[in-house]
């Protein structure tokens, strides 16, 4: 009986490993041009070729709305299914159906985020390397990029979970980032931890890096949304009771 339980647990673990690996690979393949240019940019930076940095950043900003953002949106849609209980969802069909369904909004949101990230990265490099008296301001851009990254994760979660206009998605992503600071901090710490572990064990990047972050991020997002809905329900119930008491007194 104990052996059967162990075998069942091992089988479930192997299923989850397979799911995470498949979705991560699909994510990488569908955004391959973005990753290729990013790799080339990192190689150039490590070789001290600073002149190539700005054009590479601009090229990433152009590519990401059409490759990285739709692929990431599709990955988050699969993660949403897992977190909400549909663990046996067909991976390929779900990924590509949501890739197609959310492509336009992911692209539009991606254009805005890409422009903002490109501006901040270029400004960071300028303040850090070219303006000796203003180097401290460079770290302000790091803080802004962290907030923007958290907002981006909320954007993907909202896009996979709700039917909203693009501007509503962007506004709500910003609201969740600022309005839920402790959860946002927890999310950032979790993503950084996944990155550091993946940097230590580089084989995780092609198989688990993105899918683990998407699952963790949507789990955190789902917790926030569920809590907000519960609080709204409690507030509505309290208001209803207060109205009934007022009617009784009258």
UniProtKB/TrEMBL annotation:
InterPro entries: DUF624
Alphabetically ordered keywords of this record: Membrane, Transmembrane, Transmembrane helix
One Pfam match: DUF624
Keyword Transmembrane included in the entry's annotation: yes
Chain ranges passing through the membrane: 21-40, 52-71, 106-124, 136-162, 174-197, 203-221
NAD found in the keyword field: no
Protein known as: DUF624 domain-containing protein
